[in-house]
Design goal:
This is Indole-3-glycerol phosphate synthase. The chain is α/β, with parallel strands linked by helices. The protein has 12 helices and 10 strands. It has one domain: TIM Barrel, CATH 3.20.20. It starts with a helix and ends with a helix. The chain binds indole-3-glycerol phosphate.
Length: about 260
C-alpha cells in the first residue's frame, strides 16, 4: 500500500471515530446554522495580480519526518501575516503531519488571512468540519476519488460557501479536475505515492490548465529563483511549506521569496 492510500484509510477511520462524538447529522446542522462560509476571500486572495503566497503550517510530514520540533505555530502564523502571505494552509492530519483541528482553530482566531484546511478528504463529513472550524477552503486530492465523487464534493463545498483547492499531479488528473468543475487547480510537484519531487512538473503542466481556472503550483519551492520561475509561467499562487517551516526567521524568508 502506498502512503497516500494509507493516509486515506486513516482519514476514513478518523472521520468514523469523530462521528461517535458528533454525528454526521449534527455536524451538518452546525454547518447549516453558520450560513455560508467565506470561500470568496480565498478565491480573491489567489486572484490578486502577481503571484500569491499560500504559506503552510506543518510540523512534520511522512517524507521528511519532524520538520519543526518546537513548532511555534501561532508565532509562525503571525509572521506569515506580517510578511505579506496571502493565505495560510494548515495541516490537520494527526498521524503523519502531526496536525490537529485545534491547531487550525487557534490559528484561525489569531490571523485574518483566508485559511485552507489541509487534510485527506475522503467524505463530506470532513468538508462540514472544515466549514465549522472556520476554513475558507478545503483540499480535494483528485487521486483519492473518482470524477463523480469529486463533482459531488465540489457541489458540497459550494453549498457550504467554501472554496476547494483541487490537487492534481498529472495530465489525466487535470482532465478529471476540469471536467468535474474545479475552479482552483493545484499541480503538485511532489508525487504523494513515492514522495519524489520534480520542480518542473507544475511548469510542464501549466498549459493544460484552462485560462479561466486559478492555477496553484505546489511543493518544492526553496529559493527566490524558484518563485521567479513560477511567475514566468503565470502561476496564480505558490503553496510553500517546508522552506518556511525550517526557516529560523519565517517572516524574513517569506519576504525574500516575495521579492521580485
Ligand atoms: O513543504 P513543501 O515542499 O513546500 O510543500 C507544501 C505543500 O505543497 C505540501 O505540504 C502538500 C501538497 N499537497 C499535499 C497534500 C497533503 C499534504 C501535504 C501536501
Amino acid at each position: 500500500m502506498n502512503i497516500l492510500d494509507k493516509l486515506a484509510d486513516l482519514s476514513r477511520e478518523w472521520a468514523k471515530r469523530e462521528q461517535e462524538t458528533v454525528s454526521a447529522e449534527e455536524l451538518r446542522e452546525q454547518a447549516k446554522a453558520l450560513g455560508k462560509g467565506n470561500g470568496e476571500a480565498f478565491l480573491s486572495a489567489l486572484k490578486k495580480p502577481g503571484i500569491s503566497f499560500i504559506c503552510e503550517i506543518k510540523k512534520a510530514s511522512p517524507s521528511k519526518g519532524l520538520i519543526s520540533p518546537d513548532f511555534p505555530y501561532l508565532k509562525i502564523a503571525e509572521a506569515y501575516e506580517q510578511a505579506g502571505a496571502d493565505c495560510i494552509s494548515c495541516l490537520t492530519e494527526p498521524e503523519y503531519f502531526l496536525g490537529s483541528d485545534d491547531i487550525f482553530r487557534e490559528v484561525r482566531e489569531k490571523v485574518n488571512l483566508p485559511m485552507l484546511r489541509k487534510d485527506f478528504t475522503v467524505c463530506e463529513y470532513q468538508l462540514d468540519q472544515a466549514r465549522v472550524m472556520g476554513a475558507n477552503a478545503a483540499l480535494l486530492i483528485v487521486s483519492l476519488m473518482d470524477e463523480r465523487t469529486l463533482a459531488a464534493y465540489l457541489e458540497h463545498c459550494e453549498e457550504l460557501g467554501i472554496a476547494a483547492l483541487v490537487e492534481t499531479h498529472d495530465e489525466e488528473e487535470i482532465r478529471t479536475a476540469v471536467s468535474a468543475g474545479a475552479k482552483i487547480i493545484g499541480v503538485n510537484n511532489r508525487n504523494l505515492k513515492d514522495f519524489s519531487v520534480d520542480f518542473g512538473n507544475a511548469a510542464r503542466l501549466r498549459d493544460r490548465i484552462p485560462p479561466e481556472c486559478i492555477y496553484v503550483a505546489e511543493s518544492g519551492v526553496r529559493t527566490p529563483e524558484d518563485v521567479q520561475r513560477l511567475r514566468q509561467i503565470g502561476a496564480d499562487a505558490a503553496l510553500i511549506g517546508e522552506t518556511l517551516m525550517r526557516a529560523e526567521d519565517p517572516a524574513e524568508t517569506l519576504k525574500s521569496l516575495r521579492r521580485q
